[in-house]
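Researcher: We plan to redesign the surface later, but first we want a full-length starting point. Tokens attached.
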């Protein structure tokens, strides 16, 4: 796939807004992300990660538009580090998914398990081995077309081969609720496992912790 530079990224976003680019969802393929995909991934992140947050379309917490170099370096680093980083593409890149193993996640978030207010009926033994899905992003205007489901299917197929059966994911409900993410958790038959509070950018965020066994 051709690498998209920033100028091309801006053109793609404008064309999507004008509905000039048509995505053939029947031809979407999911594969491991490669270093050459950084610009395409950054473009997707920018389309749903800006200062304004659209609850109905889904969003990423960070404002990716604000610091291009920082976030391109971040994605490049994660492509090289993570075992489970996928990109979905058709005629252009339309989505990505980043997931961490337990070891990778706790290295960056050492108190994560202790910081969660677990539901009384949740089996804490599920945290013995797990995957955390950190980011799932679909290009703005392309949600509801099964792209996220295809990304999840690829992840699940891969972790099953590694005998990993527990998946966790977080969804923000405050200060701006991510209704699109909540709807996707329901579609994927996740179970609410707990709640966590985190400070970020001088705000307190409330995250619902969802769990799924595969």
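Model: Full-length starting sequence:
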């Amino acid at each position: 796939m051709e690498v998209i530079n920033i100028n091309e990224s801006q053109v793609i976003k404008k064309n999507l807004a004008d509905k000039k680019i048509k995505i053939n969802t029947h031809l979407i393929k999911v594969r491991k992300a490669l270093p050459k995909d950084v610009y395409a991934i950054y473009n997707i992140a920018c389309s749903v990660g800006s200062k304004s947050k659209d609850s109905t379309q889904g969003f990423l917490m960070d404002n990716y538009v604000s610091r291009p170099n920082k976030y391109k370096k971040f994605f490049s680093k994660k492509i090289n580090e993570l075992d489970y980083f996928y990109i979905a593409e058709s005629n252009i890149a339309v989505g990505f998914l980043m997931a961490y193993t337990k070891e990778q996640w706790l290295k960056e978030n050492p108190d994560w398990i202790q910081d969660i207010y677990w539901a009384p009926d949740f089996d804490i033994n599920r945290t013995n081995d797990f995957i955390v899905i950190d980011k799932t992003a679909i290009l703005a205007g392309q949600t509801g077309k099964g792209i996220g489901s295809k990304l999840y299917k690829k992840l699940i197929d891969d972790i099953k081969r590694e005998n990993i059966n527990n998946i966790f994911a977080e969804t923000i409900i405050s200060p701006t609720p991510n209704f699109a993410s909540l709807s996707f958790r329901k579609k994927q038959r996740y179970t609410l496992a707990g709640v966590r509070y985190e400070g970020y950018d001088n705000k307190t965020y409330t995250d619902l912790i969802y769990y799924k066994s595969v």
